[in-house]
TrEMBL record:
Cofactor: L-ascorbate
Identification of the protein by name: Fe2OG dioxygenase domain-containing protein
GO molecular function terms noted in the UniProt entry: gibberellin 20-oxidase activity; metal ion binding
Pathway annotation: Plant hormone biosynthesis; gibberellin biosynthesis; Hormone biosynthesis
Classification of source organism: Eukaryota, Viridiplantae, Streptophyta, Embryophyta, Tracheophyta
PANTHER family xrefs: 2-OXOGLUTARATE (2OG) AND FE(II)-DEPENDENT OXYGENASE SUPERFAMILY PROTEIN-RELATED (PTHR47990)
Pfam families: 2OG-FeII_Oxy, DIOX_N
Keywords carried by this UniProt record: Iron, Metal-binding, Oxidoreductase
The keyword Transport appears for this protein: no
Sequence similarity: Belongs to the iron/ascorbate-dependent oxidoreductase family. GA20OX subfamily.
Catalysed reactions, semicolon-separated: gibberellin A12 + 2 2-oxoglutarate + 3 O2 + H(+) = gibberellin A9 + 2 succinate + 3 CO2 + 2 H2O
GO annotation, biological process: gibberellin biosynthetic process
Amino acid sequence: MEQLTNEDKTIESTMILVQETYDHFPKQFIWPKDHLSQTSSEELNEHVIDLQGFLMNDKEATLHAANLLKESCLSHGFFQVVNHGVDPGLLELAHEHGRTFFKRPITEKLKCRQKEGSIVGFSCAHAQRFREKLPWKELLTFEYHENGPHDVVEEFFNVAMGAQYKETGLIYQKLCRSINKLALDILDLLEISLGVDGHNHNYYRQLFEDSVSIVRCNHYPQCNKPDLTYGVGPHCDPNTLTILYQDQVGGLEVFVDNKWKSVHPNRDALVVNIGDTFRALSNGVYKSCLHRVSVNSFKPRLSLAFFLCPKGDRELKAPQDLVDKHGRKRYPDFKWEELLQFTQKNHRADENTLEEFTKWLLSSKNE
């Protein structure tokens, strides 16, 4: 067998810390006390939006769905959708393949480890990027191209992990294609809810016709000290939309009305939250969803997240009529690759990412 490199050994050591139970909790996973708060016992009463009528071009149903979406996005940027058109059987099959992957030995998972400077591959707790406040999770990340190589997901699994993962790659390729279609449909509904001028019809959809999105399987192991750490700390996603399929364990929490509220898993629904990129594309009208993930000492948790992202060099700006409505342009034009690199190299994603990125971007351009 190929010898492990020093980098492999470092990640493997971190992996062991995650999987084993210790009386002395590993310090790199401990979050500062001022970041920690008790897991919420209050449930979020978010809108669960039925998309069936909208997807069938029913005008009345579309208006109702758009109004519910608007209420959610003005308040906290979070909602769930049912009758979304994504095959439940395919979702569960992808989940099962994800569970199987994370049960593999560490040496097997490290075959596709995330290399420095890359966002794709296997990672334990982002240990290759951070040295403190590590999230209590391991993750497998890959890309989906809407208008590029049609088998990019399948190719990732074949090349990075071997021919035995051919079926896994085919399943995820098919699922990504279906979720991407849903994401574009939700963009249309967001456009309707914002009242974007008819002259700008399909404004948002056109920005993502050649999207290069990020897909991530998240595994949150059992944790013997769940009050000291997070599966994911408080943050807003920097991308446009996040569509999430989760198991029934729970742990996702959203910040609303100055408190954290838990999200009750809905077996029939997909979770959707607004990211910083769409906040900018709405000229700040809609909120990025501030959320976190808690862990527990009883059960592991698994989720599959589809992060809708534009192509890296796509110029992003809010529709002009939204700017005119509100009297000013709140955010400068930017490219997705600039925001992505900012979160990879300059700023760890949190609730202030978009504001900090705006300052950094303006400063860079002035220089």
